[in-house]
Sequence to fold (726 residues):
Amino acid sequence: MSSDTVERLLADLTRAEKVQLTHGAADTDGTATGFVPAIERLDIPGVRFTDGPLGVRTDEPATAFPASMALAASFDPGLARELGQTLGREANARNQDVLLGPGLNLVRVPHCGRNFEYYSEDPVVTGRFAASVVDGIESEGVVATPKHFVANNQETARASVSAEVDERVLRELYLPGFRDAVDAGAGAVMSSYNRVNGTFASEHRHLLTEVLKDEWGFEGVVMSDWFGTESVVGTANGGLDLQMPGISGKELFESMSMGDDVPDGEETDEEGTGDEAMEMDPDAVDYADGMPDPTTGGLYREELADAVESGEVPESRLDDMARRYLSVLDEHGLLDGGRNDEGAIDTPEHRELAERVAVRGTALLENDGVLPLADDADVALVGPNVDQAITGGGGSSETTPFTQTTPIEGITDRADGAVSVAHGVPRIEDVSLFDAFEDDGAEAVDGGDQSADDEPEVSIDEAVAAAEDADVAVVFVRDAATEAADRESIALPGEQDELVEAVAAANDRTVVVANTSGPVETPWRDDVAALLSCWYPGQAHGDAAGAVLYGDSDPGGRLPVTFAPEGEYPANTERRFPGVDGEVHYEEGLLVGYRHFDATDAEPTYPFGHGHSYTTFEYSDAEAIDDATVELTVENTGDRPGREVVQAYVDSPAAPDDLDRPPRELGGFVALSLDPGESRRVAVALDERAFGRYDESGGWTVDAGEHVVSLGRSSRDRRLDVAVDR
Ligand code: BGC
Fold:
């Protein structure tokens, strides 16, 4: 909402100054991912933008939180709010005003390279987490930027591909998370690189102006993704308000990566930061058109004023762009002398939160009773990367932590028995969008890499020998994912499947800990005694793994994505992924994730929502309280404290005209901790959209009749039904 201050400033600004507020420039401090300079004569401050969802990415360390998917696996939006607030505090401590997150694209393709930055295949889970993180970030006076709007569900050809997706599917699956994030008070939204039904998202008038601004009432700033602007007139008239980074890739690179290191008076090209630094090594990562054109960054700087002068972009649109930008600054207290919150970074509370999220997001997929481990068990600790904490995936979300614990450290600290270590197979190297630039002088950001020189000698035999001698074998396996490239498959890379099989054959008390960016294939699952999915756990990797393996904490996680063999997901034709002739066809419609497996009666390996506890729970006495709330009693019937996640799935009556609906849709969920023998009455609030369907003429419609709400522990383990009449 525009204030008197904003209107006064608008009246004082020249057109050139207004244009200056519509695009970024080189950061004078060299700390930010994006920067919009001050207009000093009017006391409008410079504004700094920083990535990203997993931690604050500047040139200095910050807390490296678990991947967003790990957060979602907690099914605990309260935890997400705490995380958002902590990110806000760390952004303040680093003098950053805008946080480029949360990422909330739906998991449509199981091996999308950025799934670790996203939450779920389900829009209700996505929306609740996005809204909570936004609320937390904004509560610290930092601007949250939900991204990437919208239908950016793959990295292959992300800069050009057109998502061919109909309005109903957009409304029911891909847009709700953004709506929730906007309703939670996000000050900005980032448009995606891709096209939607042929039009670039950054110039999509229907989506940016008609839906986001006019229909949803979004009064904040729509910013482009970095170099994600293909036109000036098209984007400005489509509804884009801020072009980022507003400078070329070369200028951005110079402003960020060398900063103080560029000696005075020396040509930057000689330091490897000039033109040739922007030349990417095509062999470093197979980006397959995942990279935008870095020369397009300065379009608004160069051409927007001319377009306004010629009338191609109305003056009123430029005013609207400037008004939105100033209003966001005003609402975040940035127009009255700038920030005064010093924030906090790397505090004991932040470290504890990083560990708590990793623990709560850990999903126990199999357990024949081997877990929790006995304190005095002799452990063979196996895995190619057990000496490395997985602090995240590659790309703009990379965060360099102050501290980290590796699986070796976490397990050795916790174990009373002997711990022997065997890598077994060659290390799985991190991959990163930034690898392509490394030879040209930029530093690797991911910190955990080891050079080939300290690569240990490894063999599966050595791992087998260690497993044979131990009471229990714990095998850590992982994948490697980055922004700008999709994973080749969801199988574990390298020889890790062979390693697990060999170790499991040598010791029937073999536990596998999977650290992956999303779903993973587990061909050996029937041969192992337990399987934990811990995603990318962040800086507390080792401590969190130790806490769960030894039962200090119940594994609180449930799967926010279905695990299945790769070919069984719906995006399994070339047209559906990666697309043909520049178009990816969302022909599966609404049947994404568990909706697909339910509709086709296909058996997932591990269903959406699945995860065991170290204790057992019983559900009873379910009833509908009103037409959007059900209640039930949950009892911990085991002998350990534990965390349960009650899930409510809505099966709506048939829609008229044979309109297909998914068999059931998650309406809500509640996570709770219970002591042994404790029971509690809990209410599950149901999302209205789970009852409804969207049609282009009538908008959202709830069909009259009996909607059956099933309460259960996963999409396939439904225990009680309640009828809700609408
Ligand atoms: C990513 C965004 C990120 C931006 C700035 C882009 O490559 O897609 O998510 O915020 O870079 O680093």
